[in-house]
Amino acid sequence: MPSSIAINGHLLNRAVLVLNANYSPMMVCTAKRAICMDYLDKVEVLVNYNEQVHSPTISLDLPSVVKIRDYVRYDNLSVDLNRKNVIARDEHVCQYCGNSKTSLTIDHINPKGKGGLDTWENLVAACKPCNQKKGDKTPEEANMLLTRIPKRPNRLHYFQLYVKAQQQDWRPYLFMEPFEVN
Questions:
Q1: Is the pLDDT of residue 1 over 70?
Q2: Does this model's pTM top 0.70?
Q3: What three-state secondary structure class fits 114?
């Protein structure tokens, strides 16, 4: 019995895609939260995983995609500018040398001392050796090329990163493939 509790506990942490009433992606939550929202009749379950969770009295299909019943005004495309999100946007890779096996820092492409701002377009992930080598220079002055030009990400990009083998049913809701018409 204890092993089934552990399995259910793990299943309750499974990622669930939450859509607004207009089907636009809003967030990712845990299956436990989605089940609670379903019980309170705040969401409609659109897609389930193949697993179930069990209590002593009932069995429930594990939700994968839910849609909230009442539309919420929500800026669903902006992403907070912070260290974690810059590194995630850059896929945990140094944008100068391509190293992904070391801890990363954040580098200002145009250094702060030369008027560089804290913007998505001016910040990149960099390994410590590259950041120290570049110092207070622009990439051109340091003779260091960026592997790609940084852009402001949107939340949809992050939702797409969640899609693994278990979340294939999310793909149409994240504009990764068309809906199947029956």
A1: no
A2: no
A3: helix
Verify that 83 and 145 share a domain, yes or no. Answer: yes
For β-strands 25-30 and 15-19, DSSP reports them as antiparallel
Question: DSSP code of 105?
Answer: E
Pair 139, 147: CB distance under 8 Å? no
Would residue 94 count as lying in a domain? yes
Distance of alpha carbon 14 from the chain centroid:
14
CA distances from residue 19 to 15, 32, 72, 137, 180 in whole angstroms, order as listed: 13, 16, 10, 44, 18
Q: State both tokens at 135.
A: 């110092």
Instruction: Give me the number of domains the chain comprises.
Output: 2
Q: Are residues 95 and 136 in the same domain?
A: yes
How far CA 9 is from CA of 1, 2, 6, 62, 175, in Å, comes to: 13, 10, 5, 12, 31
Q: Name the least confident of 1-10, 27-36, 57-66, 143-152.
A: 1-10
Q: 53 in helix, strand or coil?
A: strand
Instruction: Give the separation between CA 33 and CA 136, rounded to whole angstroms.
Output: 46
